[in-house]
Amino acid sequence: MKKLASKRGGKLHRGVLFRHDNTSAHSSRNVKSILRAFRWEVIRHLPYSPDLAPSDFFLFRKLKEHLEGIPFEYNG
């Protein structure tokens, strides 16, 4: 982080939004203290939600397009 601070000068403290997921590496005490020292606003990653899953927007859309118009029998 010292190298980053020397390259960015005073820009590290002005209006930085930092987004990361909730992995243990990103939520460790060291990372939290660095983020506080730089006064960065942390944008938390939302917890997993099936209605917000990226696969819904890419994979399932392609699957839906492929299966469109094919009749299926319900065996329930």
TrEMBL record:
Organism superkingdom: Eukaryota
GO MF annotation terms: nucleic acid binding
Protein name: Tc1-like transposase DDE domain-containing protein
Species for this entry: Trichuris suis (pig whipworm)
